[in-house]
Amino acid sequence: MSKKIGKSEKSKKGGHGPDRGGHAGAVARRDARAAEDEGETSTDVSLSREDYESRLYALQVELVKLQRHFIECGDRILILLEGRDAAGKDGSIKRIVEHLSPRETRVVALGKPSDRERIGWYFQRYVPHLPVAEELVLFNRSWYNRAGVEHVMGFCTPEEHEEFMQSVPRFEAMLVGSGIKLLKYYLDVSKDEQVRRLRDRRRDPLKQWKSSPIDAVAVKHWKAYSRARDEMLMRTHVAVAPWRVVRADVKRLARLNLIRDILSRLHYAGKNQKLVRPDTGVVFEFSPECIASGRLAY
Q1: What are phi and psi of 84, to 5 degrees?
Q2: pLDDT digits over 217-242, tens only?
Q3: CATH class assigned to 21-292
Q4: What pLDDT band is residue 215 in, cutting at 50, 70 and 90?
Q5: Which end of the chain lies in a sparser environment, N or C, as judged by fewer CB atoms within 10 Å?
């Protein structure tokens, strides 16, 4: 499913910026999100909600600057967010797109492939959703489904998985060569935190739409998903399309540092360099050493 971001009253009037209420607007958003963020781990307390909302607001202003710049330049930006179930992809995407223009921003979250798509070229169903000039597109899971869920759950054959692994670096090189700015992120969550979030998801009536049969076996197949993640990162982390890992156990820090890293890697006018500097303890470029040292969640 590919969808445009819902328009706010401001966007309907042609505005592209965030709520002009400044910090008052941030406080209002803080109250509206209180229920959603209930149950965050105790480590989130290290960053108060007020500090989090204030920093998020400042980064969202930078995102608006970025959008104005790539609209003027006709850039195409593609961001892939991968990770285990309940790693925080939905919440992170919400904060990224919250104040961006709905006309130039799309979130893509495809469902199960149709029978026709299953017998076609694997990447074919994703190609129509790639960004055109002046667009920012975020994939909430992407073609890397084949390296994760499909591989672990047996939804593809070993031959199909191997063909994907060999093809994806070439496919992404073509995208980058065509001028698309491609950023790939893996949100890494610990087993204990995943268990807690999946449990809360089942209990929360507002999050029932997130639950799926796959959730029920996500923890059961934890080790298989870890092996699949490691193989995916090792074989598809290339210079033209590197992976960045986000430690996602602490939601607030993960969201803030993901946005900082995106902003730090893209050029735009008026960038506040100090503001967009990510914490390398939260987000960092993947390397084989990450596996050898146990830096990823196991």
Answers
A1: -65, 170
A2: 889 999 999 999 999 999 999 999 99
A3: alpha beta
A4: confident
A5: N
